[in-house]
Amino acid sequence: MSQATLEIRAISGHAGSVPGAGVKRELEVCKLIDTTTCIGCKACEVACLEWNGLTFSETTFQNSYQTMPETAWNYWNLIKFNEHERDDGSLMLLMRKDQCMHCEEPGCLAACPADGAIVQYANGIVDFQQDRCIGCGYCITGCPFNIPKFSPQARKVFKCTLCADRVTQGLEPACIKSCPTGCLHFGTKAEMKELADHRATQLREHSGFAKAGVYDPSGVGGTHVIYVLHDASDPEVYGGLPADPHVPWTVQLWKKPLKWLGNLAIVAGVAGVFIHYLRYGPKTVPEDLQGGKP
Amino acid sequence: MTNGWIDIKNTDMMLIMGGNPAENHPCGFKWAIEAKRNRNAKMIVVDPRFTRTAATADLFLQIRAGADIAFLGGLVNYAIQNNRLAKEYLLNYTNASFLVKEGFQLPENGLYSGFDPATQTYDKSTWNYQEGGNMAGKAAPIDRPAATAAPAPAVLPPNVAYDLALEHPRCVFQLLKKQYARYTPETVERITGIPKDQFLKAADLFTSIRKDGDTKKVASVIYAVGWTQHTVGTQIIRTAAILQLMLGNVGRAGGGVNALRGHSNIQGATDMAGVFDLLPGYLKMPRPEDTDLAAYLKRVTPTVSKPGPWDSFSYWSNTPKFAVSLLKALYGPAATKQDDWAFHYLPKIDRQYSWTQLWDRMYRGEVKGLLSFGMNGVMIGPDTKKNIAALKKAEWLVVGELYPDETSEFWRAPGTTTEQMRQIQTTVYRLPCAGFAEKDGSFTNSARWLQWKNAALPPPGDARLDQDILAQIFLRVRDLYKKEGGKFPDPILNAAWSYTDPQHPSLSEVTKEINGKALADLKDEKTGQEIKTGQQLPGFAWLKDDGTTAAGNWIYCGAWTEAGPQLARRGTEDPSGLGIYPNWAWSWPANRRVLYNRASCDVEGKPWDPSRKQVWWNEAAGRWVGNDVPDFKADSPPKDHMGPFIMNPEGVGRIFAPLAAFAEGPFPEHYEPMESPVKNPLHPNQSNNPVVKKFTTAEDVYGTVEQGFTVICTTYRLTEHYHYWTKHNPMNVETVPEPFVEISADMAKDYGIEGGETIKVTSARGTYIAKAFVTRRIKAMLIDGKKMHQIGIPIHWGYRGIAEDAGKTANTPANLLTPTVIDPNAFTPEFKGFLVKVEKA
Q: Residue A294 domain-assigned?
């Protein structure tokens, strides 16, 4: 992957066209997670902590092997463990690595009002720029996968970057590098789709998983993190992977069809204040509140 | 491992049992995944719990801890009944056709022939082959009655009687058939708790590799301490070996019986005799009756025992060369021919010194002090309370460690009062040691590869390398002997210590010493190759018993040659595609990657599977050649019928293990764990292992169902932690912060326990308190018709660690619960399958 893949394709809260967008299409990156060969060892969790310099946080036992209930502002990569009984009564221990899905149509980016706080690179990575983040948390509402998390200390939102810093240098993300079984793969979207389809076919034909398939949800335009699932018809059992994720309609409406209404409201608000000033003059503080003692 | 980690990718079928590689060997487990992904290999997992390994399996069976022989015996029976056998292999490469002595009896009542109840030992003289030739069609016994005069020590007969039709009632195959005919699917269900239909499914799947006479496919058996940590641990592995021999899977790529070692370098420790009854390279330890080297060598060097027309290499016949070379390495110039190569310097073991026995003696006040390096002594043995009590009785304790551990702080274990602390007289020295990244040296992995590593950074502060500390101790003890003399100073004064810097021996020098060198000019008469005095030896074939060679461990000879450190090689070529990587590191013996690989070919010397060619006979060259180094006499033509199992005096694999090979008998038999919820359904009157080793102090108590200990308990490790040290590392602690007890949802319902609720687990020895982990991954079982619960406890917590040191917890070690009882062959404690009771705390 070259530096060029970090050309910006989309940008949050920005009026007008995106500089350089659409001029050329570089290869889009993709992470493939084969849940059928994941052993839940959490090497990816630790690699993520180490590469990104994330701080230790105290956890408690949750009646599960799962490290914590969901990803955190300082824990971007979490394996979700679920005991699932199949129709024939046999048990499955489903282990799914949960992290940012790097949507083709990212709801977080759409929802973000801060200029440049969320960017989508030409290679498909959706990245948060914390120096531009205003901590409003709209991105959290915009995400159908419950990924961005607010840090009360920093008053900003954080999530997986797909190791954009490593990827620019031609390296795979830290989680991929650490995976001992090779259930994690990294490459172009086309390559990963092919590999995923191949594995899903193998699972259907040789391992008795008739509904095995690939998770690359179209509701968000596809994702740059895709899964092979034993049963693609029921992703919810993998720790709440949404069957048909969409950017929430409120965000969609507000940021797209109704954006003019918001803009109008802002204009109307400013105009209202001006008219108020013309009509009533400057705002004054009533006598009884001036210098009064409680 | 007979094979290696990477080789698992070549398999068609895996039986993973007594091990949980996905969690405890995650990096190696990638090869199991590769086999599934690239070969559509099937994986059967049998475990008391549905583990993360089971999560990737094609078939999972929940077994009662301690019932493994019943399951494997059932597989043996199934393979015989359904003719799922590798016939040519069985006949030619195993002792299936050998005839066994008339007096030998199978354990239908739980005992083999020759048991003496008074001493609880066996007279094993009937556990032997018959003398004679081809006995095909001759059913009458030809054995003469045993002489009534003082019996000579039993030895294997040189000319074994045999029946290649495998029909003689005394032939090993017929006895095997009879022995395991009792292990019917119904009996397997009663003992293991695995429903008959599930057992049959697994048996059919595993043996399907030999369906319709197929000889191409290969199955691998993969295990770890879930098999060894039983009072019948060794015999569990024996049963697997029998099964693999019957199916013709040993010696083949993707086959074998594969022990996954659970620590870095535990394989190296075993190879270098970190065991009391061995010398380096698996030479036997001398005993008091070995009054001189000749007597020792006579006792430990096997003589060939085989059917007349067959040939046997019997490689252990070279024992004198290995032993004399070892003595030369140990004692240098002091080891001379006149002085019997200083054989009398070697300690003679007059008793057993296994781990549990050592601590028992410390508890009894006989062992006065302990040097504890690279381990956490209090935590790793059974019955922590007894171990702590034992250390209180010692005069001194030296611990080399990175952290303040439970051993060096035994005196402030939870529950110790200030008054009790005042009474402890043990002097404790805690020495700061270097961590693994601060040391160079080599690790030997499960695949028998010696791999050199460099130090990444120097030890911090006052921390020192282990070898520097040991050198200091040795040199000062030697000085004391020099100054003050002593009862027998010679072995200490004459021990070879010729390192460039005696205070700081470099591990490269030590490794070269282990490899061995020529002490005189040597010449190979056949090839004309010469080795000059002082040169490193290229391999163990050069070792001599005349004092002209020295080698600290014959099996490591070849690891560091004149060509340099072979164990540091990093070649990534793999011409065969079988994952042999002949130029990566160095594998003992002789850089062979799969042991007994002659057996990967048929009798003619052609590979069973042409797509997995390891070695083969090249008629034109008159030699065995191949992708791997042939584990065989290179110029022995197939027509000579030399057996592929060159380390056995028979030359063939032992389905029947004769004489003193094992304590309990030539075939494995299911015995109940020491603490068992049922009487052995096979023979209730002989429920446990008849030759098990128990202990007799007041601490050594064993629980029964009648006392209320009705729940079966097993212990294990988690992928997120490594033994007892990662509780000092924040990231490990973050991923699994607290101890827990895994219980089934059925049990939680029966006991009214909620997930996360604190519960108390009690055995006859101690109490363990932790949160309940209620899961569907364990289920209640029907054992001999009775409903039973099984629980699991990870072993990682104790009273020192991040949370513990912060005063947030005072965790108790899991081994407070475990019984002091050991396997009579390998002396491993029974950490799996003991009895407890469970209550809300």
A: no
- Per-residue pLDDT reduced to its tens digit, A58-100: 999 999 999 999 999 999 999 999 999 998 889 999 999 999 9
According to the model, what pLDDT value does residue B152 have? 59
Write the pLDDT tens digit of every residue in A213-252: 999 999 999 999 999 999 999 999 999 999 999 998 888 7
Asked whether residue A193 is domain-assigned, the answer is yes
Q: Are residues A201 and A68 in the same domain?
A: yes
Q: Which residues of B touch A45 (CB under 8 A)?
A: 735
Name the residue range of residue A26's domain. 3-252
Q: How far apart are CA B329 and CA B341, in angstroms?
A: 11
Residue that is written with structure tokens 């591990």 in the block: B507
pLDDT confidence of residue A268 = 87
In CATH, the number for domain B355-491 is 3.40.50.740
As for how many domains chain A has, the answer is 2
Domain match, A245 and A264 both: no
pLDDT of residue A18: 64
Q: Please state, in angstroms and rounded to a whole number, the distance separating the CA atoms of residues B182 and B108.
A: 9
Side chain identity at residue B3, one-letter code: N
B interface with A, Cβ–Cβ < 8 A, is 22-23, 26-27, 29-30, 33-34, 36-37, 40, 50, 52-56, 58, 60, 718-720, 730-731, 734-738, 740, 755-756, 771-777
Domain B684-840 top-level CATH class: mainly beta
A89 to chain B: closest CA residue: B776
Q: In CATH terms, is domain B6-262+651-661 a member of 3.40.228.10?
A: yes
Closest partner residue to B52 (CB to CB) among A39, A182, A199 is A39
- How is chain B split into domains, by residue range? 6-262+651-661, 355-491, 684-840
A159 shares its domain with A213: yes
Residues A163 and A285 in one domain: no
> How would residue A27 be classed by pLDDT, with cut points 50, 70 and 90?
confident
A40: contact with B, CB 8 A cutoff? yes
Report A:266-285 residues touching B (Cβ under 8 A): none
CB contact under 8 A, B37 and A83: no
A86 touches chain B (CB under 8 A): no
A93 and B26 within 8 Å at the Cβ level: the answer is no
pLDDT category, A265, cuts 50, 70, 90?
A: confident
CA–CA distance, B468 with B604 (Å, rounded to integer): 54
Q: How many CA atoms lie within 13 A of B204 on its CB side?
A: 8
Same domain? A81 vs A187: yes
Q: Do A43 and B26 touch (CB under 8 A)?
A: yes
Asked if residue A84 belongs to a domain, the reply is yes
- Say yes or no to pLDDT of B141 above 80: no
At B308, is the secondary structure helix, strand, or coil?
coil
Best of A32, A34, A37, A177 to mutate (most B CBs within 10 Å, chain B): A37
Judge whether A56 lies within some domain.
Answer: yes
Dig out the tokens for B744 from the structure: 């089934």
Same domain, A22 and A132: yes
Q: Is A50 on the interface with B (CB under 8 A)?
A: yes
Nearest residue to B345 via CA among B543, B472, B496: B496
Q: Does A55 touch chain B (CB under 8 A)?
A: no
What distance lies between CA B187 and its chain's CA centroid?
A: 28
- The 10 Å Cβ neighbour count of residue A285 is 8
Residue A173 and residue A282 share a domain: no
- Integer Cα distance of B661 and B654 in angstroms: 10
Whether residues A238 and A262 share a domain: the answer is: no
CB contact under 8 A, B52 and A95: yes
Q: How confident is the model at residue A290 (pLDDT cuts 50, 70, 90)?
A: low
Handedness of CA B465, B468, B472, B478 (dihedral sign): positive
DSSP assigned state of B438: G
Q: Cβ–Cβ of A40/B52 closer than 8 Å?
A: yes
CB contacts, 8 Å: B33 with chain A: 37, 181-183
Mean residue pLDDT across chain B: 96
Rounded to the nearest angstrom, the minimum Cα separation between A286 and chain B is 57
* Residues A60, B23: C-beta atoms closer than 8 Å: no
Is it the case that residue A293 has pLDDT exceeding 60?
no
